[in-house]
Design brief:
Blueprint: E1 2-7, H1 16-46, E2 49-52, E3 58-61, H2 68-83, H3 86-95, H4 98-114, H5 116-122, H6 124-152, H7 158-186, H8 190-210, H9 223-233, H10 243-247, H11 250-279, H12 288-317, H13 323-347, H14 351-363, H15 372-379, H16 384-395, H17 397-409, H18 415-439, E4 456-458, H19 462-468, E5 476-480
Parallel strand pairs: 1-4
Antiparallel strand pairs: 1-5, 2-3
Helix pairs in contact: 1-4, 1-6, 1-7, 1-8, 2-6, 3-4, 3-6, 3-16, 4-6, 4-8, 5-6, 6-16, 7-8, 7-12, 7-15, 11-13, 11-14, 11-15, 11-16, 11-17, 11-18, 12-13, 12-14, 13-14, 13-15, 13-18, 15-16
Length: about 475
């Protein structure tokens, strides 16, 4: 298949789409700081505080005397709103505006986060409602970024754009947990919510001012980049959502099953590994050291995301691998290594070895972000938000099912019971590996190919751009390519 390869003569530091990628990263970062802050704040809200009385005695009191059941409900209500809004968010973003849904969702979560302290004092029922609304706003926002990438991201920048954006999830988790803990100890607990709420609100204002729905609507973009984007993307409006085709498409199922397998392994790390360390290796998982150890895995995956995304794009640009081959290669090498490292964790009895293997297992998951996560932009760019919403809804299930399953299997607890959980995780990884290998595709699907023939964009060296300047004419040439 012959495709036109278009160079972008715009200097790297003047490319508007790179600003969109950066703001997308910070958008995800804000979403996750507001998601995890409550898990730290609730400890401060319900802990016993020492109060010195005038007579020299002291008593204990709590900010809020909530029962364990009430605390459990408060922690879970976020997911009540989050699970059911993924597909809705993707559909609205596709139908109307990804920019609007992404920005509005984060702004809504920011406002509810800011008012959380006031609602806590009003009663725990008000807190439940606020956490549900934050979940709804987060669920609407999460998949909608793909509708923005659809309008702004050239085909051969999709891996790095997706990887860089999703790295905000892990950076946001680290920052959210760390800063919440610091604020809870050194300042008033209310500032956990005030701080993250204000920061996310400022981000939302910048997002709406700077970002436009498409290059054609943007008056601030350089003409050279606008021409490049319009030529390389050849944007068209979708005439409707082909639900039947989406729901019966094997490449879509491949993305969903891979996403489910990835999240099952990730939740095994979050849920089973701490229990294994505590019950089998007799390591205190409630201490400060465990928090540091957990952060290592997030740092690893963050550091690997951008290089792996860039490498995936580079392999396509230089015609070493087709889009389909790149997606399968990165996804499957990630699943194979994660499976092996997770299984090794279950056989080691040395603390350092278990922590190393399990942390590497999470970190190597960065490769899969250039596999299944970016794949929806390949097979159906204009419907990628819907597909991401569907797959992420499916991927939430391991967080619900795995704790229940572990409660039935891990009873003693004994070493063989934990091995059973690791075997199950490996089996799911293996199923995801083979299903994705067989049915995944990097080609635009027939039901999504509505007169939309995306050209292939190539990066040019910054030194070439600097020497030749923005006035350089848009260079074009033909290159044979077997597959998108």
């Amino acid at each position: 298949m012959s495709k036109e390869i278009i160079f972008d003569p715009t200097p790297l530091y003047l490319r508007k789409r790179y600003l969109i990628y950066i703001l997308g990263f910070f958008g995800y970062l804000n979403l996750y700081t507001m998601r995890v802050d409550f898990t730290i704040a609730i400890i401060k809200l319900t802990e016993n505080r020492t109060v010195n009385n005038e007579d020299g005695s002291y008593t204990y009191e709590q900010h809020f005397n909530w029962t364990n059941e009430e605390k459990g409900i408060a922690l879970s209500t976020f997911f009540y709103g989050y699970i059911g809004t993924q597909v809705i968010g993707g559909y609205i973003a596709t139908k109307f505006s990804g920019r609007l849904v992404f920005g509005t969702g984060i702004l809504g979560a920011a406002l509810m986060t800011f008012f959380t302290p006031i609602l806590c004092y009003q009663g725990i029922s008000y807190l439940y409602v606020s956490r549900i609304i934050i979940g709804i706003c987060s669920g609407l926002s999460y998949p909608s970024i793909n509708a923005v990438y659809d309008k702004w991201c050239p085909p051969y920048e999709r891996s790095r754009a997706s990887s860089f954006g999703i790295s905000g999830v892990y950076v946001g988790t680290i920052i959210g947990l760390s800063l919440s803990g610091y604020i809870a100890i050194c300042h008033r607990w209310e500032w956990i919510f005030y701080g993250f709420g204000i920061i996310a609100t400022v981000w939302s204002i910048l997002w709406f001012i700077i970002i436009k729905d498409s290059p054609a609507d943007d008056d601030w973009i350089l003409k050279s980049e606008k021409k490049f984007l319009l030529d390389s993307l050849n944007l068209v409006e979708s005439t409707g959502t082909p639900w039947r085709a989406i729901l019966t498409s094997l490449p879509v199922y491949a993305i969903g099953i891979a996403h489910f397998a990835y999240c099952w392994g990730y939740n095994t790390y979050l849920t089973i590994i701490p229990l294994y360390l505590q019950d089998i290796l007799e390591y205190d998982t409630n201490g400060h050291h465990h928090t540091v150890i957990t952060s290592i895995s997030y740092i690893l995956i963050t550091l690997l995301l951008l290089p792996s995304g860039y490498l995936a794009d580079w392999l396509q640009v230089n015609n070493y691998l087709s889009t389909t081959q790149v997606r399968k290669f990165f996804n499957n090498i990630s699943f194979f290594l994660q499976m092996a490292l997770l299984l090794m964790s279950g056989y080691f009895k040395d603390l350092a070895a278990v922590i190393t293997c399990s942390s590497l297992s999470v970190g190597i998951g960065a490769l899969a972000m250039s596999g299944f996560l970016a794949n929806s932009l390949d097979i159906a760019p204009q419907y990628s938000s819907i597909i991401l919403g569907l797959s992420n809804s499916f991927a939430v299930l391991p967080g619900v099912l795995l704790p229940v399953l572990s409660g039935h299997i891990i009873r003693t607890p004994a070493d063989y019971e934990f091995k059973s959980m690791f075997y199950i995780a490996c089996a799911i990884y293996l199923f995801g590996f083979f299903f994705y290998s067989i049915f995944a595709s990097g080609k635009v699907q027939p039901w999504a190919n509505l007169n939309r023939q995306s050209s292939i964009s190539l990066e040019i060296l910054e030194s070439d751009i600097t020497s030749q300047g923005v006035s350089r004419e848009n260079s074009k040439f033909r290159k044979n390519k077997n597959e998108c």
